[in-house]
């Protein structure tokens, strides 16, 4: 799959990064001779951030090519995204030229944050395939993309754009009406206008205004919008009650400051100096990394709840897993079974700069879970009041790993009887198959209702027997059966 | 420490919960006969959420008493917080009455979201001690509280209020000017006004507007406000460049929709039905739990970055640690050293409903770290290129624990030489001292520059020797030296 990009600024570079990291080839047109450097910088940020964000391995990175005309960038592309500066004539010209070089069913999307698609599509060859696809900075991390068609746009073009964006882990929001500024930027601008007034009137500084957002409503806005938050605030009495209670305050005098403050030199100076003070000694690059790390932490946090951007991330990761080698339903039993892989997340790393020892236990435990699923322990089995509990574990740490390292885990069945099973896991680096840790677990089959040991289901025992037939022939790993303090073999 | 609360609605109940969970006694006045039930419900939510949010144990919960007059609620209180409905006369009357019953230096704060403190303090005994202390819902989780004095307010009153709020884990934002709606609500209201227009004009539904926030700018707003975000968007050219680029768009036609839409019955019906549709079958209670879980996840996520609300949380936790029993500088060596305690967080629990086995390794590893600090391995030591690495671990799982269980860990030094040390940890439930898991670790002293084993510093060896003098006399734990598959003793 190949994407044509028109424009390689902050937004175009962000698109390039998102597409490349998802394995798409990118052909870009940007007349700025600095574009390759700028895109390279965004890509470096994005590589670091995306690797940190998602657990499964990303597909092999696509190829980035710079071409010298919009026509060349669109030739052979399966999808075209325009991210030129916000000047109508410029965007129209780029889209017009590029559209002559692309097949009639190739969809074009514009990253414009405010220009109407009905205007953008004027003069294009096959104007019906143009929609707005408005992303948010940083494009490689934020899931939102607003899709908005113009008067000539086809529904199929919007469908196609939505499908492409979902493939790269985004959340497309389909707008039902064409409107300047779309939805998100109107909301942002309303808040921004009020913020400028507060600075203008000396009520608060840039930094204080930011604090008023990020320590309060901003925390909620990362997973619920204003409507749902207010519904909850209304309590059992519901939204009508909330509106009755707070509707009148909309007419209070403090809502009347709705004009735009004049951007005098004085106001600009104030904003700039307050912004400088707020940023302190931090460079833009450092601020970008901080922003990305916070976004990653927030989205990964929300993933544990399975809500909002966490749900989008979860869906994306499952998609990435699906694209990788699936765990064989009928595994190869002539060797330890490869059941699990992961990339070391940054929060696994401790003050020594390496993966913390306890995380290998976590990894091994996750691998054990996958082995249990392989032998038939599913949710129905758990609901029937039966499970395997680990009663004893032994870990050997062999080599260090670092954040971002790709690891995989194999499981070997050392022994089993009706109630017990002894598993051995080997954790290896994917690059070179180097052993990094091993673990041995004694697991007990338990009747969870009576809370005592019980024989496993015959179906599970049969699967264990089938595996044992092969694994009994494997050599015992040197780390198995060790006690602490025993000299290494 | 005792707090008087005037009003026990959603906000007053949230204050009650925050103060009680931080060990303050609360005396509350609310004429609503339903107040005890309502406050009880908020408190139940808050208990669950706060326990999940913070790692260290909370202090013993304070006592909640309902009293039948504002005077009674203020009598003997060290701080008074008013959270009555937003009616000026009502608030004035409550503050006036309560102020007659409190000593002259007892500070009063009002939770009003928009009324001016200069008006609220009129008629109070000692009006100089009244400030606004405006919190955000849910009060027991969101750190922001705006502090704003009126024309008669003293700086000391604002200082005192800020100190009280910091004690209960909040971030006080001191406003420099008295203004209707303060800072945060003006920003919220600006966005809300625009959202109402979008619904009114049929551009987007409540749910779509919420998505436009939570999948985009809302994620950023959870840690950086608009000013810093825009500074980053401006790139290396800085804030002046950003303003030059986007300032003109403030004058575009789509910024002119700044009036308040009339809340006709039709618009209200639309909002209510869209809100119902968005909430689906979820009850307010379920939505509250979802909101709280998301807030916890976001704040815990930001804690890993140490920024924004994560920094506030981190400071609060360190404060809670400090309030607990400090680790003795000269520990009692006649028994295994108690080095660590924690409350089982919800995300440690797996599908079996118990703490996942791998978490005991994490807990034991954290205890090992604390033991290392105890024997002198500090950041200077690490920077000198020396550290202890774990090379082998053995865990025995003895009993199940659940989310919220309070655990503590002891460390016993089993043996050591110049380069190696064998530690044994016992993890116990705090309630009944029941053993839940044990772990044994072999640790190797490493020259991290050369990446090979090396003798520990004489200072550390001396500390180990001092501990060994006592610990050598302790009986060997039955789980020490075991290998997997060995019958239990």
Can you tell me about this structure?
The structure is a homodimer of 489-residue chains. Helices cover 42% and strands 19% of the residues of chain A. The first copy, chain A, has 16 helices and 14 strands. In chain A, the strands form 2 sheets. Chain A has an 8-stranded mixed β-sheet, with helices on both faces. At the A-B interface, helix 7, helix 8, helix 9, helix 10 and helix 11 of A face helix 7, helix 8, helix 9, helix 10 and helix 11 of B.
Class based on secondary structure composition and strand pairing of chain A: alpha/beta
Strand order of the largest sheet of chain A: 3-2-1-4-5-6-7-8
Q: How many β-strands of chain A, per DSSP? A: 14
The CATH class of the largest domain in chain A turns out to be Alpha Beta
Percentage of residues in strands of chain A: 15-25%
**Silhouette of chain A:** globular
Rounded Rg of chain A: 28 Å
The largest inter-chain interface, given as chain pair and residues per side, is: A-B, 148 and 148 residues
Element-level helix/strand string of chain A = EHEHEHEHEHEEHEHHHHHHHEHHEEEEEH
Going by CATH, the architecture of the largest domain in chain A would be 3-Layer(aba) Sandwich
- Quaternary state of this entry equals homodimer
CATH topology description of the largest domain in chain A: Rossmann fold
Number of helices of chain A: 16
Number of domains of chain A: 3
Q: In percent, how helical is the residue content of chain A?
A: 40-55%
> Ranges of chain A with pLDDT <50 over ≥5 residues?
253-257, 324-329
Name given to the CATH homologous superfamily of the largest domain in chain A: NAD(P)-binding Rossmann-like Domain
Distance between the termini of chain A: 51 Å
